[in-house]
Structure formats: C-alpha cells, structure tokens
User: What shape does this take?
Amino acid sequence: MSTPVTYEFGKAFIFKRIRPGIRRFFLKAGYDDVPYSFFGWLFFITAAITALAYIIVFYPIISAYQTGSIFVITFLSWILVQGALITLAIIYLYFDLNIRIYRRTKELEKILPDYLQMVSANLKGGMSFEKSLWNAIKPEFGIISKEISIVYKKVMTGNDLTEALREFTEKYDSPILRRSFDLIISEVETGGKVSHIVDKVIENINKTKQLAQEMSAATLSYIIFIGAIVIVIAPALFALSYQLLTIMIGFSAKLSTINASAIPITFAALQISPNDFRTFSIGALIVIALFSSMIVSIIEKGDIQGGLRYIPMFLVSSIIVYIILMKVLEMLFRGIVIT
Assistant: This one.
C-alpha cells in the first residue's frame, strides 16, 4: 500500500545519483517506476522489529549498566540490528528482481521470432519499417509488445527510431535480442531490403534455439550424474560416516575403560562429537546442493541464473534422503555394540 509518507520517506533514503540506475534496474524487471513506498515501509517495519528485539532481548541485559553505557549500547545495537535487517531485505529484493529479469529475458527471446515473423509479413505487404513494428504489436506477444510500445512513444516525441530500438535492446542482457536488432538497424540505415534480413534473423534465431536444445539433450547424462551425487551419493556417504563415527566412539570409550595391565596400549576417547558431525553434514549438503544447481544450470542453459530453480529440489531431496538413511543405517548398525 502506497502512502505519501512512505513514498517520500523511501525516496529520501535513495541518493539522487543512484536513482537512474535503480530505475533502469526496475524497468528491466517490468516495473514502470521505482517503488519508493516499498523502501519507506521497509524502514518502518525494520524499525518496529528492531524496537521489539531491543525491548525483549537487549534491554534486560543492559538495564543494570550505567546510563551512559546504556545509551551507547542502545545506539549501536539499534544501528546494527536495523542495518542488518535492511541489508538482508535489499539482498533478497536484488536476487528476486534478478530472477524476474532473467525470466522476462527468456520469455522475450522465446516470442521474438514470432514477433519478427509478423514484422516481416507487414514489410512484404508494403508497409514501412516503422509501421511494420507498430502493426505487429499484439497482446499475445506480451513483453515485446510493451517494449515496442515504449519505443513507439519515444519516436512520437521526437527521438530517432534506431536510437530508441538500441535503448530497448540494451535494457536486457540478451545477445540474441541485441544482435538481431543490430543487424536489422544496420540494414535500415543502409536502405537495404529489410524484409530479407528479418527473415534471415528469424532463421538464425530458430537454428540457435534448436542447437541449444540439442546441446541440452546431449548433456543430460551429466545432469543425471550430478543429480545422483547430490540426492543419493553424498547423503549416503555422510549418513554412513556418522554411523561409523558413533561405532568408533563406542569402541574407544569401551577400550579406554579396560585395565592398562590387560592391554599395554592406551586408547584415548575420540574428540569428535556426533552432533557436530551431523551439523557439519547438513551444512555440507546445503553447499553441495547450491553449487551443484549452478553447475547443472551452466551445463544445461549456459548461465547460473537458470539453475536457481534446482536449489530447492536438490536441497530438500538431499536432506530428506540423508534423514531417511540415518534412520535406516541406525537400525542396521544397532547390533554392533561392545558389551
């Protein structure tokens, strides 16, 4: 919910020199303007959470201190806690917008050949290049229709068509989009047969997509292998190591109580805690799932952002398999006890 207070308050916390960059970033994500009210609400909500944390956690601890110390600790703790909350929220927003931008870029690349096919048909029907672009705008083309509408408004207000198109292509990190329109713009500037180059661009885009699909299919075995490591092999090894650790601790504890005269060798108890090893195992599985999803994304799609959807699947599956194997191996090794 946007209010004048939150809007102005949020705007005041964003420096003027970085506002253009933030605006471009939000435009890429599909927002027409920067949601300054969000930043205002973010400040007030984090301030309320910080105040609650101070009353419940910090003040009972520092209430016995002197007044000066209480003031200094309150000031520092307030800045640190609220600053940490705002930083975490901004980091989450940054990654969320990056994912949104990535999805919009992929959606735009998907519908680009269909849009250019309509432009080519308009050109062959005798329309000029500008009218071909405008008349090809259809609701089913989604993002690209909205972007070309923005280009149209810029041209109607006096901007050059080629510059407006270049600004459109620079908004998205898409080599396919940028190269396609660079070829078309260069043909328009030289006065060549635009419909021919548009058809060639469509053909090249379709060939590129087909090649990408073939490469993805060829690397399927690598993806399956990495998935098996993350979901089955790594949890199984950690679960087995945990059971072996508990057995070794039981052996060492039993042998350390035997009379030294009976066995002329001393056995010291192991210093590794099973609980610490379990915590380490879960942390290691999280790291493995995170980086494996990135590797799979690079193999399959050529970038890291596309692999973010694999993280929950890998993470949840590996932890569940780890817990199940822990229970199964615990029942299997329960009889291995020195009496």
